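Weekly sync, protein design subgroup
Attendees: M.S., D.O., the rotation student, P.L. (late)

Item 1: inverse folding check
M.S. brought a backbone from last month's batch and wanted to see whether the design step gives back something sensible before we order anything. D.O. pointed out we never logged the input encoding, so this time it goes straight into the notes. Structure tokens as presented (254 positions):
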């Protein structure tokens, strides 16, 4: 059994795969994973698989935010962009597309042609186009992240380009009396506006949308309506990087 691990800034995703595909998956809060299932040794961190409920694995491949700071004993480390491209190809069967990944604290746009990465842009300097921004805005609105992610129609205009100032602007719009659907649509539209320049420069007819943010429909609809593209959300958008690790070995892609 091959183990793929995506050490994200907000969550750790772990998958188990064999020749027939995905066999198991786990999702942990990042701090909980290191605290409860990691054991520090002189050679690095050992993952306590029995404590997770996994008997044994044949190989470990890891990527993600913590790949360079958390040295997992016995793991092969691969770049995040490579892991996400391999995962998207395996999950969708597509070879040419633009990959959009919105994670907890960064965003990535990668252009893939004939199965190869030909260009990319990333944003890991600003929280304003990430899942963390959406979590904060959902808290301001007093709704769940799941509810926030549903809306895209009649968005309230929000112009602040900073996540912090964006919260203040949203509170101002609440005071003006706008409804939750329009306010939530406005929040989702700000995400679209911030990733639009990256997408425009690397656009394809098909956009594969991954990361936890892809679980909602609001931003998917905005991408389709505003860019005129087909948006494909894989079955496991949040696990895409871990799946890429699980199928990374040459000759074992689908």
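Designed sequence read out in the meeting:
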């Amino acid at each position: 059994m091959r183990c793929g691990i995506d050490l994200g800034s907000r969550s750790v995703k772990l998958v188990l795969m064999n020749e027939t595909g995905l066999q198991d998956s786990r999702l942990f809060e990042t701090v909980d994973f290191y605290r409860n299932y990691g054991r520090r040794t002189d050679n690095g961190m050992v993952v306590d698989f029995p404590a997770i409920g996994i008997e044994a694995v044949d190989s470990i491949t890891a990527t993600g935010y913590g790949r360079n700071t958390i040295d997992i004993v016995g793991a092969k480390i691969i770049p995040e962009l490579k892991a996400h491209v391999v995962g998207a190809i395996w999950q969708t069967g597509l070879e040419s597309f633009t990959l959009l990944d919105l994670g907890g604290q960064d965003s990535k746009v990668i252009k893939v042609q004939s199965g190869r990465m030909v260009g990319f842009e990333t944003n890991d300097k600003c929280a304003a186009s990430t899942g963390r921004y959406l979590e904060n805005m959902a808290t301001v609105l007093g709704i769940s992240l799941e509810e926030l992610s549903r809306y895209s129609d009649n968005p309230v205009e929000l112009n602040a380009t900073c996540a912090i100032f964006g919260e203040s602007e949203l509170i101002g719009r609440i005071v003006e009396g706008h409804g939750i659907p329009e306010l939530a649509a406005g929040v989702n539209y700000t995400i679209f506006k911030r990733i639009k320049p990256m997408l425009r420069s690397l656009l394809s007819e098909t956009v594969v949308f991954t990361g936890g943010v892809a679980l909602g429909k609001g931003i998917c609809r905005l991408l389709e309506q505003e860019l005129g593209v087909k948006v494909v959300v894989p079955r496991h958008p949040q696990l895409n990087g871990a799946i890429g690790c699980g199928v990374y070995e040459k000759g074992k892609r689908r």
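Discussion: The chain has a mean pLDDT of 90. Residues 11 and 30 are 4 Å apart (CA to CA).
Action: P.L. to compare against the previous round before Friday.
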